[in-house]
Design goal:
Elements: H1 7-18, H2 22-35, H3 43-66, E1 82-87, H4 93-100, E2 118-124, E3 127-133, H5 144-151, E4 155-161, H6 166-179, E5 182-185, E6 198-207, H7 215-225, E7 231-233, H8 242-252, E8 255-260, E9 273-276, H9 281-288, H10 290-295, E10 298-302, E11 310-312, E12 323-327
Parallel strand pairs: 1-3, 1-4, 4-6, 5-6, 6-7, 8-12
Antiparallel strand pairs: 2-3, 8-9, 10-11, 10-12
């Protein structure tokens, strides 16, 4: 029976055959499976790739348990979302990570200071979002695994240096990402022609806008972009607009905090559950514990659109800051 495989399959298969590390091979196999149409003619092919994928993941898990070396680009996801910081050399990515998290990457005035990705946790609204600084994007030095890491992001921060040809930096960065099938989601981002292209939401951080004396330069840059990209002026050095960046990320990631309350006790505000906007009481119950979902009967809510202690069902939609008391 013919398989009728699309052109995207052969592109992905070529990348899979060229991949070296287990992490890259896993990423390529997962991409391959998305390109194969589902019908009887491809059953054996899909089963073969799923078997290979399962073996690779088992091998990677075994390496981690035995303490064997894994790629520096394989970083475990922590927190409710992952944000990856990318940009040209010397735009201030590492300084930004240091300013927003407790991580201590090497920061200097010289380019290519960062040679491996560095993760950190950024506190925002009683929770923490994973932020990863990455090696500079440059045609002179390209690590294929870097682009595999970027593809795992929930959001991308494109950093440019306002004081050093930011338009050229942005164009070069976006071009390199698109060459590796990653499309940053700008204001007028079109759907990719190939399924293998990852479209990731982003904002352009215009760094080194240290004070009002640089605002005119920012306005010129903004006009040149003609609203093609969402922008935020910041300064990793002076802290300008970093609080606004934290809030922007929380909103753009579509997150919300839900606080758990036990019957007869005060609400616990120390560690909220973080869910996606639009989540229901049932989804919250499952997040608290799987047993809650099966035995769940009703809930009492304090928060948006309800009166204090209102009784609701499992399909009730929650809002940021709601307090939920589950009853089984």
């Amino acid at each position: 029976m013919p398989t009728n495989l699309p052109p995207e399959y052969y592109d992905a298969d070529e990348r899979y055959r060229a991949a070296v590390s287990p992490v890259d091979k896993i990423a390529c196999l997962e991409e391959l499976l998305t390109t194969i149409p589902k019908h009887k003619g491809t059953d054996h092919l899909r089963a073969d790739y799923r078997k290979r994928l399962s073996k690779l993941k088992a091998t990677l898990d075994s390496q981690k348990k035995s303490g064997k070396h894994t790629s520096v680009y394989h970083i475990e996801k922590e927190g409710p979302a992952r944000v990856v910081v990318v940009g040209a050399p010397n735009v201030g990515k590492s300084a930004l990570l240091a300013a927003l998290t407790h991580a201590r990457p090497k920061v200097s005035e010289y380019p290519f200071t960062t040679w491996t990705p560095t993760p950190g946790m950024m506190p925002v609204r009683d929770t923490q979002i994973q932020l990863i600084d990455t090696p500079a994007l440059s045609p002179e030095h390209i690590e294929p695994e870097l682009f595999g890491l970027i593809r795992t992001a929930d959001f991308v921060l494109l950093v440019v240096d306002l004081q050093a040809r930011p338009l050229r930096q942005l164009d070069d960065t976006v071009s390199m990402l698109e060459e590796h099938r990653i499309r940053p989601g700008g204001a007028e981002c079109k759907a990719p022609e190939r399924k293998s292209t990852a479209v990731l939401p982003c904002v352009v951080l215009v760094n080194k806008d240290d004070d009002e004396s640089w605002d005119e330069e920012f306005e010129v840059f903004d006009e040149l972009l003609e609203n093609r990209w969402p922008l935020l002026r910041i300064s990793a050095e002076t802290g300008r607009n970093l609080d606004a960046l934290r809030e922007l990320l929380f909103e753009r990631l579509g997150l919300m905090r839900i606080y758990s309350k036990q019957p007869g006790k005060e609400v616990d505000r120390s560690a909220p559950f973080v869910l996606k906007q639009g989540a229901t009481v049932a989804e919250f119950a499952e997040r608290v514990h799987k047993d809650f979902l099966t035995g769940f009967k009703t809930a009492r809510i304090w928060g948006t659109g309800v009166h204090d202690g209102q009784q609701v069902g499992r399909d009730h939609v929650l809002y940021d800051g709601d307090i939920v008391e589950l009853h089984t």
